[in-house]
Amino acid sequence: MAETTTPHRGATEEEVGPHGRHETESERLDRNLLELLNELRVALPGVQVLFAFLLAVPFQQGWSDVTAFQRDVYFATLCCALIATALMIAPTAYHRLNFRARRKRELVMISNRLAIAGVAFLALALVGTMVLIADYLFGAVATAVFGGLALLLFVLLWFVLPKAKDLGSESDAE
């Protein structure tokens, strides 16, 4: 069987991905890794700022006045921010420790899972921050309302929307 070429860079049909990209598997893995690392570069500063803010909270005046619930929410939120930071930095460590090991496919797959888990823990940390502040300022009813709304917002925007197939057109770039 003769090898067919496409007009783009002489790529064979086997090199055209499911979304019409003309790239080899190696090029696709490189692109996927670069996109993932760029996304993490956007998210990490926010996580780090939140974590730094949370580290300073117990040393502020008035901290001794918090309730047991607020203290527990604070610590759970701090833990979520710490876990989010670790998960989002983990792909870099994984890459460095496996440098030139020819495991790019594994790196991309594992890093993707780590990033998704990191985003989930970041959402929990942000919801926890909202719960803590709402409870401190307004009480239990506002805590439930604003905490629930914050959780709903993150679930919808960060997890449901990306999986909603009907919202984009078929010609959208992957």
Automatic annotation (TrEMBL):
The keyword Membrane applies. Residues 10-27 have a biased composition (Basic and acidic residues). Keywords: Membrane, Transmembrane, Transmembrane helix. InterPro entries: DUF6328. The chain crosses the membrane at residues 42-61, 73-94, 114-134, 140-161. Pfam families: DUF6328. It comes from the Bacteria. Residues 1-27 are annotated as: Disordered. This is O-antigen/teichoic acid export membrane protein.
